[in-house]
Amino acid sequence: MLTLYRTALRLRRSFGDAGPLRRLRADEPHVLSFARASERDGATWICLVNFGPEDVAPSAGAELLPASGPLSARGRLPRDAAV
């Protein structure tokens, strides 16, 4: 778990010019998601947390950075996990 936090902090520092944090509306009621957009290159960084009982799909085509655990065999975010 410490490795996950260290990786996340290192990545956050690399987003130095990212704009304000904004909450995103999720299709699933048990999912928390928020984003920051880079003013330099337009990249958007999204955090997705699944609090629900069912697996959820991350955004199509998204590059997954650190995750709190492995994705399911179908590439979905399991319950009680974040990416």
Beta-strand percent range:
15-25%
Order of helices and strands: HEEEE
Query: Which structural class do the helices and strands define?
Result: alpha+beta
Largest sheet: 4 strands, antiparallel
Measured between the Cα atoms of the first and last residue, the distance is 13 Å
Compute the CA-based radius of gyration. Answer: 13 Å
Could you characterize the architecture of this molecule?
There is one protein chain. With 83 residues, this protein is an alpha+beta fold. It contains one helix and four strands. Strands 1-2-3-4 form a four-stranded antiparallel beta sheet, with no helix packed on it. Strand 2 and strand 3 (44-50) form a beta hairpin. The chain is globular and about 35 Å long. 5% of the residues are buried. The mean pLDDT is 83.
How are the SSEs ordered, and which strands pair?
Elements: H1 2-14, E1 22-24, E2 31-37, E3 44-50, E4 81-82
What descriptive keywords fit this protein?
16% helix, globular, 4 strands, alpha+beta
Task: Briefly summarize what is shown.
Helices cover 16% and strands 23% of the residues. By secondary structure, the protein is α+β, with helices and mostly antiparallel strands.
